[in-house]
Design goal:
The protein is of the alpha/beta class. The chain is built from nine helices and nine strands. The protein has two domains: 216 residues, Glycerol-3-phosphate (1)-acyltransferase, CATH 3.40.1130.10; 61 residues. Strands 1-8-7-2-5-3-4 form a seven-stranded mixed β-sheet, with helices on both faces. Helix 5 crosses helix 6. The protein is elongated, with a radius of gyration of 29 Å.
Length: 278
Amino acid sequence: MFYRLMKMIVAPMLRIFFRPWMEGAENIPDEGPAIIASNHLSFSDSFFLPALMKRRVTFIAKAEYFNTPGLKGKLTAAFFKGVGQLPVDRSGVRGAGEAAIRSAVAVIDRGELFGVYPEGTRSPDGKLYRGKVGGLARVALQTGAPVIPVAMIDTEKVQPPGQVVPNFGIRPGIRIGRPLDFSRYQGMENDRFILRSVTDEVMYEIMRLSGQEYVDIYATAAKRQIADEKKRADAERRAEQRAERAAEKAAEKERQELEKLEQEKQELEQGKQESGDS
């Protein structure tokens, strides 16, 4: 019920204010199960993708969206619960990954669309990062459902990471690729090499659709690198600022000493002149 209400309210608003476009909608089956595998550029992906698709898509969402305190947290939790998103704990709790896979399989078994972000988190800089082995490939091989690659376009410009109020005047888009069939690997969901091969094939299609630069590391590692680089840059900037202040103090001290010497010289010359006049 809430999902239909959100579609009735949010979808028209997004179309009015952002005029989003979609290519390849014919690749989404009218009925039957499928896995929607998308890149992840912005928090707003969770609005644009479900709003523009005719069929309901159930995504796995990080647990923080459901238990963040405060008014914003409650509103966020209400939205994700209302559109049927599945919370998953990404903190490393044992069994959390298996529970998420079981939930995804249940969605597929109901003949519905299951959505996943293979990168596991939002891109920190707009690049496409290595897909995580596990959920996507295991669900695909266990259920035999086709995987439909999806590319979100320019949503990071609508709502950059950390920004609450979206930028208007940006027209984001969704590009949907042809379904990928991995039935040739069915029954091999415990083979890690097969899981990696399936994941990489999906990520290649997403890269081709999105035009993003691909980086063969995990997005979580990239975020740590970016954070470390920012810390180093901040430390270097603070060190430069301290050096500049020290140099300014030294220059000011030297200027004051020169002024003092000049004043003493003038007083000495004045004393000699007065002595000569007398």
